[in-house]
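Quarterly update from the structural biology core.
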Amino acid sequence: MTAACMPSSPSPVLAAALIVRNEVRSIARCLESVRPWVDRMVVLDTGSSDDTIALARRCGAEVHQAAWPHDFSAARNRVLDLTDADWNLVIDADEWIVSGGALLRSWCLGPARLGTICQHSASDAAPSPVAGAPLPSSRNWVTRLLPREVRYRGRVHEQAVSALPRERIELHLGHDGYLETQLAPKRERNRPLLLLELREKPDNPYILFQLGKEAEARDQHAKAAALYARAFARTPPHANWRHELLIGYLHCLGRSGRADAGLEIAEREMPHWSHSPDFFFVLGNLLLERAIADPGQAVHHWLPLACAGWERCLKIGERPDLEGSIQGRGSHLARYNLELVRSQIALLAR
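Predicted structure, tokenized:
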């Protein structure tokens, strides 16, 4: 048989893999955004009482059902078994593809590796003070594009486990699961699982970090700072979540009346984060807290230092590549703080 007559190699099969429960609000949006870019969509429903199953089927998904195992990895791994695909795009019902879907096919023709994609999570817990600005969103690079054999570990905030290299792909997901209207069920579900994990692994920094985030979301800043402190002491320098952990730790120290402790940590960490607008934004906030506590030195010392921090944010600009970065800290949020405090300095100096 000549080379021209040889059958071509089949293209790798790419599947979208979802675990869902009562997602009628968002399941169609998710599946419609995914459908143009994958060969199949496989949904594992874990006990919906609404029309999620029927809606998913109308969108073209293959739907399976199983009891909720109280373990996210177990559910993720079950749906990955069901896809039987060469590559799996793991996505949640409250996410949707914003851009980059066209890159998936060429990615799947490449070598075996894990793909990390950018999740943009909107939050209305602390709306932007800038009129007309979008809701602040955090940007996290999450491992979601997996070769056939890769599976998850961890009851909650589960992680893909593999020795394969991880590589970023410019696939961007919107995510609205952190809006206040959506958070309550997640908090009630996730916290018991995290505490169970912590009992089994009391010094695990990632679990401590996630518990700190849970406490921060409840505005329990002192408790969050204590959890972040334990996590930070145990987190290796190369951990991809270290940036987000440090920013949360400094923020909660400031909000719990411990700005001095935050400033000491920030001084030690500054050489590592000269490229982070988030670091200098929170540093500016710590210095503002210090100005409030020490009004005698505010105008001539603390407030100019705070302004210098926010000026540094604007000089760096936005850095969506940094794990846990918040949109606006390298632009309009820093500019708002800077202009507000400068106007106050001018009034106080009269």
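Residues 3-175 form a domain with the Spore Coat Polysaccharide Biosynthesis Protein SpsA; Chain A fold (CATH 3.90.550.60).
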